[in-house]
Protein backbone atom coordinates (compact mmCIF):
# COMPACT_ATOMS: atom_id res chain seq x y z
CA UNK A 1 0.00 0.00 0.00
CA UNK A 2 2.78 2.43 0.84
CA UNK A 3 4.27 1.63 -2.57
CA UNK A 4 1.12 2.94 -4.19
CA UNK A 5 1.30 6.00 -1.93
CA UNK A 6 4.84 6.78 -3.00
CA UNK A 7 3.96 6.19 -6.66
CA UNK A 8 1.14 8.68 -6.38
CA UNK A 9 3.33 11.22 -4.67
CA UNK A 10 5.87 10.91 -7.45
CA UNK A 11 3.18 11.31 -10.07
CA UNK A 12 2.01 14.47 -8.39
CA UNK A 13 5.46 15.96 -8.63
CA UNK A 14 5.71 15.01 -12.29
CA UNK A 15 2.27 16.30 -13.23
CA UNK A 16 2.80 19.12 -15.68
CA UNK A 17 0.16 21.81 -15.55
CA UNK A 18 -1.47 21.33 -18.91
CA UNK A 19 -4.51 23.08 -20.20
CA UNK A 20 -4.65 21.03 -23.38
CA UNK A 21 -7.80 20.83 -25.41
CA UNK A 22 -10.74 18.85 -24.11
CA UNK A 23 -11.00 15.33 -25.46
CA UNK A 24 -14.41 14.65 -23.97
CA UNK A 25 -14.81 11.25 -22.44
CA UNK A 26 -17.59 10.35 -20.03
CA UNK A 27 -17.44 7.38 -17.68
CA UNK A 28 -20.75 6.40 -16.17
CA UNK A 29 -20.82 3.94 -13.32
CA UNK A 30 -24.32 2.48 -13.19
CA UNK A 31 -26.37 0.78 -10.49
CA UNK A 32 -25.30 -2.67 -11.68
CA UNK A 33 -21.74 -1.76 -10.68
CA UNK A 34 -22.93 -1.09 -7.11
CA UNK A 35 -24.49 -4.57 -6.97
CA UNK A 36 -21.19 -5.99 -8.12
CA UNK A 37 -19.26 -4.05 -5.47
CA UNK A 38 -21.78 -5.21 -2.85
CA UNK A 39 -21.08 -8.79 -3.89
CA UNK A 40 -17.32 -8.67 -4.03
CA UNK A 41 -17.11 -6.27 -1.09
CA UNK A 42 -18.57 -8.56 1.57
CA UNK A 43 -15.45 -10.62 2.16
CA UNK A 44 -13.07 -7.64 2.47
CA UNK A 45 -15.57 -5.94 4.77
CA UNK A 46 -15.81 -9.04 6.96
CA UNK A 47 -12.05 -9.18 7.15
CA UNK A 48 -11.78 -5.49 7.99
CA UNK A 49 -14.39 -5.69 10.73
CA UNK A 50 -12.50 -8.44 12.55
CA UNK A 51 -10.90 -5.90 14.86
CA UNK A 52 -9.09 -6.31 18.15
CA UNK A 53 -11.19 -5.70 21.25
CA UNK A 54 -9.22 -4.70 24.34
CA UNK A 55 -9.96 -6.67 27.53
CA UNK A 56 -12.73 -5.56 29.82
CA UNK A 57 -11.49 -4.39 33.20
CA UNK A 58 -13.89 -4.78 36.08
CA UNK A 59 -13.70 -4.83 39.87
CA UNK A 60 -13.96 -8.24 41.41
CA UNK A 61 -13.46 -7.95 45.12
CA UNK A 62 -10.64 -5.48 45.63
CA UNK A 63 -8.95 -6.30 42.34
CA UNK A 64 -9.34 -4.83 38.85
CA UNK A 65 -9.67 -7.98 36.77
CA UNK A 66 -9.20 -8.18 33.03
CA UNK A 67 -11.57 -10.28 30.95
CA UNK A 68 -10.13 -11.13 27.56
CA UNK A 69 -12.46 -10.67 24.56
CA UNK A 70 -11.88 -11.90 21.03
CA UNK A 71 -13.84 -11.53 17.81
CA UNK A 72 -13.85 -15.05 16.39
CA UNK A 73 -15.76 -14.33 13.22
CA UNK A 74 -17.66 -11.63 11.36
CA UNK A 75 -20.44 -12.42 8.89
CA UNK A 76 -21.87 -9.77 6.59
CA UNK A 77 -25.12 -11.26 5.27
CA UNK A 78 -26.22 -8.02 3.59
CA UNK A 79 -24.29 -5.27 1.91
CA UNK A 80 -26.13 -2.74 -0.21
CA UNK A 81 -24.93 0.35 -1.97
CA UNK A 82 -27.00 2.99 -3.65
CA UNK A 83 -26.54 6.40 -5.18
CA UNK A 84 -27.63 9.51 -3.35
CA UNK A 85 -28.46 11.99 -6.11
CA UNK A 86 -26.28 15.07 -6.05
CA UNK A 87 -24.17 13.74 -3.21
CA UNK A 88 -22.62 10.32 -3.43
CA UNK A 89 -23.26 6.88 -2.04
CA UNK A 90 -25.07 5.17 0.82
CA UNK A 91 -23.78 1.95 2.28
CA UNK A 92 -26.09 -0.27 4.27
CA UNK A 93 -24.82 -3.46 5.83
CA UNK A 94 -25.75 -5.96 8.46
CA UNK A 95 -23.12 -7.93 10.29
CA UNK A 96 -23.02 -10.59 13.00
CA UNK A 97 -19.98 -10.60 15.24
CA UNK A 98 -19.22 -13.92 16.93
CA UNK A 99 -17.36 -12.97 20.07
CA UNK A 100 -15.62 -15.12 22.63
CA UNK A 101 -15.50 -13.83 26.19
CA UNK A 102 -12.87 -15.50 28.36
CA UNK A 103 -14.74 -15.19 31.61
CA UNK A 104 -14.20 -17.21 34.74
CA UNK A 105 -14.86 -20.05 35.33
CA UNK A 106 -15.92 -20.84 31.78
CA UNK A 107 -15.63 -18.89 28.49
CA UNK A 108 -18.78 -18.00 26.63
CA UNK A 109 -19.67 -17.08 23.09
CA UNK A 110 -21.92 -14.27 21.97
CA UNK A 111 -23.39 -13.23 18.64
CA UNK A 112 -23.74 -9.49 18.33
CA UNK A 113 -25.82 -8.28 15.38
CA UNK A 114 -25.11 -4.87 13.89
CA UNK A 115 -26.69 -2.73 11.19
CA UNK A 116 -24.50 -0.10 9.63
CA UNK A 117 -25.43 2.91 7.56
CA UNK A 118 -22.75 5.14 6.12
CA UNK A 119 -23.03 7.98 3.62
CA UNK A 120 -20.14 9.02 1.45
CA UNK A 121 -19.64 12.12 -0.60
CA UNK A 122 -18.09 11.64 -4.03
CA UNK A 123 -16.21 14.59 -5.44
CA UNK A 124 -13.33 15.55 -7.66
CA UNK A 125 -10.13 15.57 -5.68
CA UNK A 126 -7.18 17.97 -5.87
CA UNK A 127 -5.23 15.74 -8.28
CA UNK A 128 -8.26 15.39 -10.56
CA UNK A 129 -9.27 11.94 -9.46
CA UNK A 130 -12.59 10.92 -7.92
CA UNK A 131 -12.42 11.07 -4.13
CA UNK A 132 -14.83 9.41 -1.72
CA UNK A 133 -15.22 10.70 1.83
CA UNK A 134 -17.43 9.36 4.61
CA UNK A 135 -19.84 12.00 5.85
CA UNK A 136 -21.86 9.96 8.32
CA UNK A 137 -21.35 6.52 9.80
CA UNK A 138 -23.79 4.97 12.26
CA UNK A 139 -23.42 1.45 13.52
CA UNK A 140 -26.42 0.21 15.48
CA UNK A 141 -26.12 -2.84 17.71
CA UNK A 142 -28.92 -5.17 18.73
CA UNK A 143 -28.98 -7.31 21.82
CA UNK A 144 -26.31 -9.99 21.80
CA UNK A 145 -27.43 -13.57 22.04
CA UNK A 146 -25.45 -16.05 24.10
CA UNK A 147 -24.51 -18.96 21.88
CA UNK A 148 -23.44 -21.31 24.60
CA UNK A 149 -22.04 -20.66 27.96
CA UNK A 150 -22.88 -21.68 31.43
CA UNK A 151 -25.20 -20.66 34.16
CA UNK A 152 -22.17 -19.56 36.06
CA UNK A 153 -21.73 -16.31 34.13
CA UNK A 154 -23.10 -13.49 36.18
CA UNK A 155 -25.79 -11.43 34.42
CA UNK A 156 -24.03 -8.27 35.57
CA UNK A 157 -20.84 -9.32 33.83
CA UNK A 158 -22.83 -10.03 30.66
CA UNK A 159 -24.23 -6.50 30.71
CA UNK A 160 -20.77 -5.01 31.30
CA UNK A 161 -19.24 -7.11 28.55
CA UNK A 162 -21.86 -6.07 26.02
CA UNK A 163 -21.53 -2.41 26.91
CA UNK A 164 -17.79 -2.64 26.54
CA UNK A 165 -17.93 -4.44 23.17
CA UNK A 166 -20.48 -2.01 21.74
CA UNK A 167 -18.46 1.01 22.83
CA UNK A 168 -15.30 -0.38 21.27
CA UNK A 169 -16.98 -1.46 18.03
CA UNK A 170 -18.86 1.81 17.58
CA UNK A 171 -15.52 3.53 17.15
CA UNK A 172 -13.66 0.83 15.33
CA UNK A 173 -16.32 0.00 12.76
CA UNK A 174 -16.36 3.56 11.42
CA UNK A 175 -12.57 3.63 11.47
CA UNK A 176 -12.60 0.45 9.38
CA UNK A 177 -14.98 1.99 6.87
CA UNK A 178 -12.72 5.06 6.67
CA UNK A 179 -9.72 2.86 6.04
CA UNK A 180 -11.50 0.95 3.30
CA UNK A 181 -12.47 4.24 1.69
CA UNK A 182 -8.85 5.44 1.96
CA UNK A 183 -7.71 2.33 0.10
CA UNK A 184 -10.40 2.92 -2.48
CA UNK A 185 -9.20 6.50 -2.97
CA UNK A 186 -5.65 5.31 -3.53
CA UNK A 187 -6.94 2.95 -6.20
CA UNK A 188 -9.08 5.66 -7.78
CA UNK A 189 -5.96 7.81 -7.85
CA UNK A 190 -4.39 5.45 -10.38
CA UNK A 191 -6.87 6.81 -12.95
CA UNK A 192 -4.33 9.52 -13.75
CA UNK A 193 -1.54 7.04 -14.48
CA UNK A 194 0.14 7.23 -17.90
CA UNK A 195 -0.58 4.43 -20.38
CA UNK A 196 1.25 3.86 -23.65
CA UNK A 197 -0.62 4.54 -26.91
CA UNK A 198 2.05 3.84 -29.48
CA UNK A 199 5.78 4.35 -29.86
CA UNK A 200 6.95 7.19 -27.56
CA UNK A 201 3.39 8.23 -26.88
CA UNK A 202 1.12 8.05 -23.88
CA UNK A 203 -2.35 8.89 -22.67
CA UNK A 204 -3.50 10.12 -19.29
CA UNK A 205 -7.04 10.65 -18.08
CA UNK A 206 -8.14 13.00 -15.36
CA UNK A 207 -11.47 14.15 -13.99
CA UNK A 208 -12.44 17.56 -15.36
CA UNK A 209 -15.37 18.57 -13.18
CA UNK A 210 -17.43 17.53 -10.18
CA UNK A 211 -19.13 14.17 -10.77
CA UNK A 212 -22.78 14.16 -11.69
CA UNK A 213 -24.71 11.83 -9.43
CA UNK A 214 -28.27 10.69 -10.01
CA UNK A 215 -30.29 7.80 -8.58
CA UNK A 216 -29.08 5.70 -11.52
CA UNK A 217 -25.45 6.52 -12.02
CA UNK A 218 -22.43 8.55 -11.21
CA UNK A 219 -20.91 10.22 -14.26
CA UNK A 220 -17.36 11.42 -14.47
CA UNK A 221 -16.30 13.89 -17.11
CA UNK A 222 -12.87 12.70 -17.99
CA UNK A 223 -10.31 14.42 -20.12
CA UNK A 224 -7.59 12.58 -21.97
CA UNK A 225 -4.25 14.21 -22.53
CA UNK A 226 -1.99 12.61 -25.08
CA UNK A 227 1.76 12.94 -24.88
CA UNK A 228 4.37 12.52 -27.59
CA UNK A 229 7.91 12.29 -26.23
CA UNK A 230 6.59 13.73 -22.98
CA UNK A 231 4.98 16.74 -24.63
CA UNK A 232 1.20 17.17 -24.61
CA UNK A 233 -0.49 17.13 -28.00
CA UNK A 234 -2.80 20.08 -28.42
CA UNK A 235 -5.65 19.93 -30.87
CA UNK A 236 -6.26 23.19 -32.69
CA UNK A 237 -10.06 23.09 -32.89
CA UNK A 238 -12.83 21.59 -30.72
CA UNK A 239 -14.06 23.54 -27.78
CA UNK A 240 -17.59 22.20 -27.53
CA UNK A 241 -18.02 19.99 -24.51
CA UNK A 242 -19.17 16.44 -25.01
CA UNK A 243 -22.56 15.45 -23.62
CA UNK A 244 -23.38 11.76 -23.44
CA UNK A 245 -27.13 11.10 -23.72
CA UNK A 246 -28.90 8.95 -21.17
CA UNK A 247 -29.81 6.15 -21.54
CA UNK A 248 -27.39 5.05 -24.23
CA UNK A 249 -25.90 1.72 -25.28
CA UNK A 250 -27.04 -1.40 -23.46
CA UNK A 251 -29.17 -0.82 -20.38
CA UNK A 252 -28.39 -2.51 -17.10
CA UNK A 253 -24.64 -2.73 -17.63
CA UNK A 254 -22.14 -1.73 -14.95
CA UNK A 255 -20.31 0.90 -16.95
CA UNK A 256 -21.08 3.12 -19.91
CA UNK A 257 -18.15 4.94 -21.47
CA UNK A 258 -18.69 7.64 -24.06
CA UNK A 259 -15.74 8.59 -26.24
CA UNK A 260 -16.12 11.71 -28.31
CA UNK A 261 -14.76 12.18 -31.79
CA UNK A 262 -12.20 14.62 -30.34
CA UNK A 263 -10.43 11.81 -28.54
CA UNK A 264 -10.01 9.83 -31.74
CA UNK A 265 -8.90 12.92 -33.66
CA UNK A 266 -6.30 13.50 -31.00
CA UNK A 267 -5.08 9.90 -31.04
CA UNK A 268 -4.75 9.94 -34.83
CA UNK A 269 -2.92 13.25 -34.70
CA UNK A 270 -0.57 11.73 -32.16
CA UNK A 271 0.06 8.62 -34.25
CA UNK A 272 0.63 10.72 -37.35
CA UNK A 273 3.00 13.12 -35.57
CA UNK A 274 4.87 10.16 -34.11
CA UNK A 275 5.33 8.86 -37.66
CA UNK A 276 3.75 5.62 -36.52
CA UNK A 277 1.48 5.51 -39.55
CA UNK A 278 4.31 5.67 -42.10
CA UNK A 279 5.71 2.51 -43.58
CA UNK A 280 7.98 1.13 -46.27
CA UNK A 281 6.55 -1.58 -48.45
CA UNK A 282 9.21 -3.88 -49.82
CA UNK A 283 8.78 -7.30 -51.26
CA UNK A 284 11.10 -10.06 -50.31
CA UNK A 285 14.05 -8.09 -51.63
CA UNK A 286 16.22 -11.07 -52.47
CA UNK A 287 13.47 -13.42 -53.51
CA UNK A 288 13.23 -14.59 -57.13
CA UNK A 289 9.54 -13.92 -57.38
CA UNK A 290 9.25 -10.57 -55.65
CA UNK A 291 6.20 -9.05 -57.36
CA UNK A 292 7.48 -5.57 -56.46
CA UNK A 293 9.99 -5.35 -59.30
CA UNK A 294 10.91 -3.10 -62.18
CA UNK A 295 10.15 -5.68 -64.85
CA UNK A 296 6.52 -5.90 -63.78
CA UNK A 297 6.34 -2.09 -63.70
CA UNK A 298 8.28 -1.84 -66.97
CA UNK A 299 5.48 -3.57 -68.77
CA UNK A 300 3.23 -0.65 -67.84
CA UNK A 301 5.77 2.19 -68.05
CA UNK A 302 8.19 1.88 -71.00
CA UNK A 303 10.67 4.31 -69.47
CA UNK A 304 11.07 1.98 -66.45
CA UNK A 305 11.79 -0.96 -68.75
CA UNK A 306 14.36 1.16 -70.59
CA UNK A 307 16.15 2.33 -67.44
CA UNK A 308 16.09 -1.11 -65.80
CA UNK A 309 16.81 -3.83 -68.31
CA UNK A 310 17.40 -6.22 -65.43
CA UNK A 311 14.59 -6.68 -62.90
CA UNK A 312 15.29 -4.70 -59.73
CA UNK A 313 13.23 -4.65 -56.51
CA UNK A 314 10.88 -1.75 -55.83
CA UNK A 315 10.21 0.03 -52.55
CA UNK A 316 7.02 1.93 -51.79
CA UNK A 317 7.55 4.62 -49.18
CA UNK A 318 4.18 5.35 -47.62
CA UNK A 319 4.03 8.63 -45.74
CA UNK A 320 0.99 10.13 -44.04
CA UNK A 321 1.47 13.86 -44.26
CA UNK A 322 -2.15 14.61 -43.46
CA UNK A 323 -3.81 13.36 -40.29
CA UNK A 324 -6.30 10.59 -41.04
CA UNK A 325 -9.89 11.70 -40.67
CA UNK A 326 -12.23 9.58 -38.62
CA UNK A 327 -15.99 9.83 -39.05
CA UNK A 328 -18.66 8.30 -36.88
CA UNK A 329 -22.09 7.74 -38.33
CA UNK A 330 -24.67 5.53 -36.63
CA UNK A 331 -23.26 1.98 -36.86
CA UNK A 332 -20.35 3.10 -39.05
CA UNK A 333 -16.89 4.23 -38.20
CA UNK A 334 -14.77 5.17 -41.19
CA UNK A 335 -11.20 6.26 -41.45
CA UNK A 336 -10.04 8.32 -44.40
CA UNK A 337 -6.36 8.18 -45.26
CA UNK A 338 -4.47 10.23 -47.80
CA UNK A 339 -1.05 8.68 -47.94
CA UNK A 340 1.70 9.91 -50.18
CA UNK A 341 3.41 6.98 -51.86
CA UNK A 342 6.84 7.28 -53.39
CA UNK A 343 7.86 4.46 -55.70
CA UNK A 344 11.59 3.81 -55.67
CA UNK A 345 13.76 1.29 -57.41
CA UNK A 346 17.02 -0.11 -56.17
CA UNK A 347 19.59 0.63 -58.79
CA UNK A 348 22.57 -1.58 -59.53
CA UNK A 349 24.78 0.18 -56.95
CA UNK A 350 21.97 -0.44 -54.41
CA UNK A 351 21.04 3.24 -54.15
CA UNK A 352 17.38 4.14 -54.24
CA UNK A 353 16.11 5.98 -57.25
CA UNK A 354 12.76 7.71 -57.14
CA UNK A 355 10.59 6.70 -60.11
CA UNK A 356 7.36 8.53 -59.34
CA UNK A 357 5.06 9.42 -56.51
CA UNK A 358 1.35 9.09 -55.98
CA UNK A 359 -1.27 10.80 -53.91
CA UNK A 360 -3.53 8.10 -52.62
CA UNK A 361 -6.99 8.33 -51.06
CA UNK A 362 -8.53 5.38 -49.33
CA UNK A 363 -11.55 4.93 -47.07
CA UNK A 364 -11.38 2.27 -44.42
CA UNK A 365 -14.13 0.86 -42.32
CA UNK A 366 -13.15 0.65 -38.68
CA UNK A 367 -14.42 -2.02 -36.28
CA UNK A 368 -13.85 -1.33 -32.60
CA UNK A 369 -13.69 -3.76 -29.73
CA UNK A 370 -12.61 -3.74 -26.08
CA UNK A 371 -10.27 -6.12 -24.36
CA UNK A 372 -9.36 -5.68 -20.68
CA UNK A 373 -8.73 -1.93 -20.57
CA UNK A 374 -7.99 -1.25 -24.23
CA UNK A 375 -10.04 -0.12 -27.16
CA UNK A 376 -8.78 -1.89 -30.25
CA UNK A 377 -9.51 -1.34 -33.92
CA UNK A 378 -9.47 -3.39 -37.10
CA UNK A 379 -9.76 -1.80 -40.52
CA UNK A 380 -10.78 -3.02 -43.94
CA UNK A 381 -10.83 -1.16 -47.23
CA UNK A 382 -14.15 0.46 -48.14
CA UNK A 383 -14.62 0.83 -51.85
CA UNK A 384 -11.73 1.61 -54.10
CA UNK A 385 -8.29 3.09 -53.61
CA UNK A 386 -7.89 6.32 -55.56
CA UNK A 387 -4.51 7.19 -57.07
CA UNK A 388 -3.20 10.42 -58.58
CA UNK A 389 0.28 10.96 -59.93
CA UNK A 390 2.04 13.65 -57.92
CA UNK A 391 5.41 13.61 -59.71
CA UNK A 392 7.18 11.40 -62.22
CA UNK A 393 10.79 10.83 -63.26
CA UNK A 394 9.74 8.22 -65.78
CA UNK A 395 7.51 10.20 -68.11
CA UNK A 396 3.83 9.66 -68.60
CA UNK A 397 2.08 7.25 -66.25
CA UNK A 398 -1.28 5.75 -66.96
CA UNK A 399 -2.84 5.73 -63.51
CA UNK A 400 -5.39 3.10 -64.54
CA UNK A 401 -2.58 0.74 -65.37
CA UNK A 402 -0.39 1.20 -62.31
CA UNK A 403 -3.49 1.07 -60.12
CA UNK A 404 -3.72 -2.69 -60.18
CA UNK A 405 -0.06 -3.25 -59.50
CA UNK A 406 0.64 -0.51 -56.96
CA UNK A 407 -2.85 -0.44 -55.45
CA UNK A 408 -2.97 -4.12 -54.67
CA UNK A 409 0.64 -4.38 -53.61
CA UNK A 410 0.32 -1.50 -51.22
CA UNK A 411 -3.13 -2.25 -49.80
CA UNK A 412 -2.33 -5.36 -47.77
CA UNK A 413 0.87 -4.08 -46.12
CA UNK A 414 -0.92 -0.81 -45.26
CA UNK A 415 -3.82 -2.68 -43.66
CA UNK A 416 -1.46 -5.04 -41.84
CA UNK A 417 0.49 -2.07 -40.52
CA UNK A 418 -2.59 -0.14 -39.42
CA UNK A 419 -4.20 -3.18 -37.87
CA UNK A 420 -1.07 -4.02 -35.93
CA UNK A 421 -0.98 -0.45 -34.62
CA UNK A 422 -4.69 -0.15 -33.84
CA UNK A 423 -4.63 -3.70 -32.47
CA UNK A 424 -2.31 -2.54 -29.69
CA UNK A 425 -5.20 -0.37 -28.62
CA UNK A 426 -5.72 2.81 -26.65
CA UNK A 427 -6.03 2.52 -22.89
CA UNK A 428 -9.52 3.40 -21.71
CA UNK A 429 -10.08 5.22 -18.41
CA UNK A 430 -9.49 2.69 -15.65
CA UNK A 431 -7.91 2.14 -12.28
CA UNK A 432 -5.45 -0.50 -11.18
CA UNK A 433 -6.75 -4.10 -11.29
CA UNK A 434 -10.10 -3.06 -12.78
CA UNK A 435 -10.97 -4.46 -16.20
CA UNK A 436 -13.78 -4.09 -18.65
CA UNK A 437 -15.58 -7.36 -19.45
CA UNK A 438 -18.24 -8.43 -21.97
CA UNK A 439 -18.00 -5.05 -23.61
CA UNK A 440 -20.07 -3.96 -26.56
CA UNK A 441 -19.09 -1.01 -28.73
CA UNK A 442 -21.72 1.18 -30.36
CA UNK A 443 -21.03 3.85 -32.93
CA UNK A 444 -23.29 6.88 -32.97
CA UNK A 445 -23.28 10.17 -34.82
CA UNK A 446 -20.02 11.76 -33.65
CA UNK A 447 -19.17 9.49 -30.74
CA UNK A 448 -18.62 5.94 -29.58
CA UNK A 449 -20.25 4.22 -26.61
CA UNK A 450 -18.88 1.24 -24.73
CA UNK A 451 -21.37 -0.73 -22.64
CA UNK A 452 -19.45 -2.96 -20.34
CA UNK A 453 -19.22 -5.13 -17.30
CA UNK A 454 -16.42 -4.57 -14.82
CA UNK A 455 -14.14 -7.06 -13.19
CA UNK A 456 -11.96 -6.38 -10.21
CA UNK A 457 -8.93 -8.61 -9.92
CA UNK A 458 -7.69 -8.91 -6.36
C1 LIG B 1 -27.24 -12.80 12.37
O1 LIG B 1 -27.91 -12.54 13.52
C2 LIG B 1 -29.29 -12.47 13.39
C3 LIG B 1 -29.83 -12.08 14.73
O2 LIG B 1 -29.18 -12.75 15.73
C4 LIG B 1 -29.85 -13.80 12.97
O3 LIG B 1 -31.24 -13.74 12.80
C5 LIG B 1 -29.18 -14.17 11.70
O4 LIG B 1 -29.60 -15.48 11.33
C6 LIG B 1 -27.71 -14.13 11.85
N1 LIG B 1 -27.12 -14.36 10.59
C7 LIG B 1 -26.02 -15.06 10.44
C8 LIG B 1 -25.53 -15.19 9.04
O5 LIG B 1 -25.43 -15.56 11.38
C1 LIG C 1 -18.99 -22.94 23.24
O1 LIG C 1 -18.74 -23.42 21.92
C2 LIG C 1 -17.40 -23.43 21.55
C3 LIG C 1 -17.33 -23.94 20.12
O2 LIG C 1 -18.42 -23.52 19.38
C4 LIG C 1 -16.59 -24.28 22.49
O3 LIG C 1 -15.21 -24.16 22.13
C5 LIG C 1 -16.77 -23.79 23.88
O4 LIG C 1 -16.11 -24.66 24.77
C6 LIG C 1 -18.24 -23.78 24.25
N1 LIG C 1 -18.40 -23.26 25.56
C7 LIG C 1 -19.21 -23.79 26.44
C8 LIG C 1 -19.26 -23.12 27.74
O5 LIG C 1 -19.90 -24.75 26.18
C1 LIG D 1 -28.14 -24.41 34.35
O1 LIG D 1 -28.70 -24.55 35.64
C2 LIG D 1 -29.84 -25.37 35.66
C3 LIG D 1 -30.37 -25.37 37.08
O2 LIG D 1 -29.59 -24.69 37.98
C4 LIG D 1 -29.47 -26.75 35.17
O3 LIG D 1 -30.63 -27.56 35.19
C5 LIG D 1 -28.87 -26.69 33.79
O4 LIG D 1 -28.44 -27.94 33.37
C6 LIG D 1 -27.72 -25.75 33.75
N1 LIG D 1 -27.26 -25.61 32.41
C7 LIG D 1 -25.99 -25.62 32.05
C8 LIG D 1 -25.70 -25.43 30.62
O5 LIG D 1 -25.09 -25.78 32.82
C1 LIG E 1 8.47 -9.55 -60.91
O1 LIG E 1 7.05 -9.50 -60.58
C2 LIG E 1 6.24 -10.40 -61.29
C3 LIG E 1 4.80 -10.19 -60.86
O2 LIG E 1 4.55 -8.85 -60.63
C4 LIG E 1 6.66 -11.80 -61.02
O3 LIG E 1 5.89 -12.69 -61.78
C5 LIG E 1 8.13 -11.98 -61.33
O4 LIG E 1 8.57 -13.28 -60.93
C6 LIG E 1 8.97 -10.94 -60.60
N1 LIG E 1 10.37 -11.05 -61.03
C7 LIG E 1 11.37 -11.13 -60.15
C8 LIG E 1 12.73 -11.24 -60.75
O5 LIG E 1 11.18 -11.12 -58.95
C1 LIG F 1 -22.50 1.70 -42.98
O1 LIG F 1 -22.03 0.38 -43.04
C2 LIG F 1 -22.83 -0.49 -43.79
C3 LIG F 1 -22.24 -1.88 -43.67
O2 LIG F 1 -20.88 -1.85 -43.39
C4 LIG F 1 -22.90 0.00 -45.23
O3 LIG F 1 -23.73 -0.84 -45.96
C5 LIG F 1 -23.42 1.42 -45.26
O4 LIG F 1 -23.36 1.91 -46.56
C6 LIG F 1 -22.60 2.30 -44.36
N1 LIG F 1 -23.19 3.60 -44.29
C7 LIG F 1 -22.48 4.70 -44.41
C8 LIG F 1 -23.23 5.96 -44.24
O5 LIG F 1 -21.27 4.69 -44.62
C1 LIG G 1 -14.26 8.36 -49.13
O1 LIG G 1 -15.47 8.74 -48.52
C2 LIG G 1 -15.84 10.09 -48.77
C3 LIG G 1 -17.06 10.38 -47.97
O2 LIG G 1 -18.02 9.36 -48.07
C4 LIG G 1 -16.05 10.28 -50.27
O3 LIG G 1 -16.36 11.61 -50.53
C5 LIG G 1 -14.77 9.90 -51.00
O4 LIG G 1 -14.98 9.97 -52.39
C6 LIG G 1 -14.34 8.51 -50.63
N1 LIG G 1 -13.02 8.25 -51.19
C7 LIG G 1 -12.71 7.11 -51.78
C8 LIG G 1 -11.32 6.99 -52.27
O5 LIG G 1 -13.50 6.19 -51.90
TrEMBL record:
Keyword tags: Signal
SMART domains noted in UniProt: BPI2
Pfam families, sorted: LBP_BPI_CETP, LBP_BPI_CETP_C
Signal sequence extent: 1-20
Top-level taxon of origin: Eukaryota
Residues of the Lipid-binding serum glycoprotein C-terminal domain: 249-452
Keyword Nucleotide-binding part of the UniProt annotation: no
GO molecular function: lipid binding
Family as reported in the entry's similarity comment: Belongs to the BPI/LBP/Plunc superfamily. BPI/LBP family.
PANTHER family given in the database record: BPI FOLD-CONTAINING FAMILY B MEMBER 2 (PTHR46019:SF1), BPI FOLD-CONTAINING FAMILY B MEMBER 4-RELATED (PTHR46019)
UniProt name for this protein: BPI fold-containing family B member 2
Organism: Octodon degus (Degu)
Upper classification of the organism: Eukaryota, Metazoa, Chordata, Craniata, Vertebrata
